Amino acid sequence: MPFPVTEIPKTYDPKQVEPRWYAAWERSRLFEASEASSRPPFSMAIPPPNITGSLHMGHALNNTLQDVLLRFYRLQGYEGCWVPGTDHGGIATQNVVEKQLLNEGRSRTDLGREAFLRRLWSWKEECGDTILHQLKRLGCALDWSRKRFTLEDPCAQAVLEAFRLFWEQGLLYRERRMVNWCVRCGTALSDIEVEHEDRQDKLYYVRYPSRENPGDFLVVATTRPETILADMAVAVHPEDARYQGWIGRRLLRPLNPGGKVSEIAVVADEGVDREFGTGALKVTPGHDPLDYEIAQRHNLYDFLEVIGLDGRMREHTGPPFAGSDRFEARRLAEAALREKDLLEKEEPYRHSVGVCYRCGEVIEPLLSYQWFLRMGALIAPAIEAAREGRLRFYPESWRQPYLQWLENLKDWCLSRQIWWGHRIPVYYCGNCHQDELFFRPDPKSAWSRHSPTVVGSHRTPAGVYGSYRGMREALGAKAYQTALQGADRMWVRTPRGPMCKLEAPARCETCSGTEIFQDPDVLDTWFSSALWPFSIWGWPKSSRAFQKFYPTHTLVTGYEILYLWVARMVLFGCYFLKREPFARVLIHGIVRDAKGKKMSKSLGNVVDPLEVIDRFGADALRFSLIQQAVPGRDIQCTEDSWVGARNFANKLYNVSRFVQMQLSGARPVGPDRASLAHLADRWILSRLCATQLQVGRSYGECRLDEAARCLYSFVWDDFCDWYVEFAKLRTPAPLSVLLEVLSRIFRLLHPMMPFLTEDLWHRLFPVSERDFLLNSAWPRSLEDFSDPEAERRMQHLQEVIGAIRTLRHQMRLSPVAPLEAHCLFREDSLAELFAEHAGAVKRLARLQALYLLREEKKPPHCATLLVSGGEIFVPLGGQMDVGRERARLEESLQAMDQEVVRLDARLSNRSFLDKAPAREVEKVRSRKRELETQRQGILRRLASVQ
RNA sequence: GGGCGGUUAACUCAGUGGUAGAGUGCCAUCCUUACAAGAUGGAAGUCAGAGGUUCGAAUCCUCUACCGCCCACCA
Length: 946
Hints:
The chain is 42% helix and 17% strand.
């Protein structure tokens, strides 16, 4: 009894299926890995999304790829463990919450550090897991029992421990240095957190008067005239003939803090580019990294610093500059120079400007106290790992950039002057540290009224520098306490060295003083990210999970965070554990919109993955992304690609429905090689064998895109279009093969389309509710079923069926016009083949009759088809259009002639015959023979068609 | 300034030495009892350009053009 069609809907509805299965998986704790398992481990650490925002296409792609790998390796018999988690996201998250406060008309200093942090934690509780929850809709097989957050234990503990270990090894130091300062975020950034943007600016040519003869100028080109106020010298190239006479002379600084004119020297330095501008460079060591280096080379240590941490000109610059924004100051400087007739000219100039990767504000190079990590000792192992193949990149082309980055690596600026993050575990003693502090007080506090009197300090709009002891003395104990509470932050220079402790010490180790305070800075959020592949398992504590699952197997990520994150994980993993944190890095591209533009909120071109899931299903979204995810290459996401993937899902759904309808009570046993009699059976299993091999290989080599395309074409072209069409004619239906093929398709495809395959698996096979596909196994090898002979024979049938279908169109016949075919084959085996499968050929070519001729007995009024190994005559009777038939034959004759010419050219080429492999030559020869035979046939037909 | 990647059908892209592929779109025909989210057939490409290596090049090498990305102390 066929299953009544009406009971199963004709189109697949993912909405009915997907949520149900994810719930079932979770209920059964299907994704929870066991460290006690004897199966080999396959572990992955999710790239933890920041707790800002919600799922976007990039996450969807990244996590789909991971889920495919996880599910594939689980089917392969591995103990799969994929750890979910989120990143506190330092500056990014703090910015989000600060923006909220701003809308309420408040700032973080209004709240104070503690209240602000409380607010961030409640944000985290509220929105932090949004993305993780959304990943469930995508089907991700994450082990929820192991969810981590970078700011909580065990990850937070790992951060402290890592810092302490670095400290003990002497790799940490605190120094006043030129760093990238974001005046908007109010923090230092590491070098890779600075992005470069091309900007249209002006290049100013400024006259620096000679001291001896103020009418004599040396002209310097600069884009930043506001920093002239902090110029300490002018540098020229030592071999620049134009300036030999100037070296060693004194110049008058064109603009001066407080208007007090002072002198600067002309120095010679190799660092100067003679080609640029006038070949003379103004040296501003307080606000430019190159100038800082040059100044050091010339022992210029007494720098002027004119731009404050808030991006405004500092007080001592005097009118009209003091207090103005640095860009406003640029215009003021331009005007002042013009007024003094020191501006020779200006020209439009395009150059790249460093901006903050979090807020886009132009970076200000500034001197400030920061914590740095010495990278020198960490680099070599990370390089070796990649050189020696213990760490592999997919695609390999990313290995070189990775190595180059490491080779040029400088020390890492770790400290951030924000509040949200891992507070640096360093403690200072109020008694015995002779320190210099920087306070940025709450403007409403009493402290700000006292500050101008502080000893030895200089003041900026941002705050006050001064010595710790000096401040206390100046303020008195009480006001000083208030100041400490109100202080936004402070930098401390420590002649005797502070203490690094996992917990706040009660008293000073040196003097037993109890006035202990912690370094106010937090660590770069990427510091905790670098520990992620081992902190998630509880490192530094050793645990069974850690033993079992570290190192992780594969890291999947986008190339945009290769340095920011991937390289640093390798550095840290190799350093702390002497073992790279993963063996493979699968690098995918960026998801772009239909026009190839990067998706961004500001462009308004973001496509919401959840919306795509609603419309097309998670499986369709996944399959579409996978299909396009050639390693390292960007992906365009378009409506079309979702539709195509959804149609594929529907195709598989329907072919399964078809098989289901054939099922009656008894379940057939699986086919075995010996008893496979039917050509179609042998053929489809042979094709399946090749497909399974290819798909397995592709999955294993991180070519998920390849696996997707391979399965797509097997399912659609081979199975649906040919095998099932053959099967429809057979009674009883070849259920054992149909089910075997489907059962294998489900398992091969499950990593990419988990919901649909799970659903169909349960519908078609007598498995219990809890026998999940993910717990089944990758199908055993089909190599026994490989059958090239069957594939060849099938090809003959396909060719003839195709030729007759084409003929109908060429002769403008209706697809249902009654036709018969008379076949004449040169080999008996072919005749037997067609005799055996006459039914299928008749049906698929829609013939009324199929005759096999023993000798040439061409019926009258017929069209002739030349096929491999024979000819097919199709009588057309009254519908025969002689002219059309002649044209058709002539056209194919022409095509053959062209091909023959090409083949002849190759065969008459001595060096081809001599040098090409014999197999290749034989291929050409046999093609030529076949063509010749067909050609003769056509010529005979042409002669007889009147 | 250095480096990397791309340029293949109208569109989006596969294809690393044997003579060009897919999906979508287009044209034509078809409600053939799994699927119109389908079936069948078709048109459509000097594989960016030039040179080289090779019996043979979309594929390897060199150069050029355009597009994109990364790195760099472009004052």
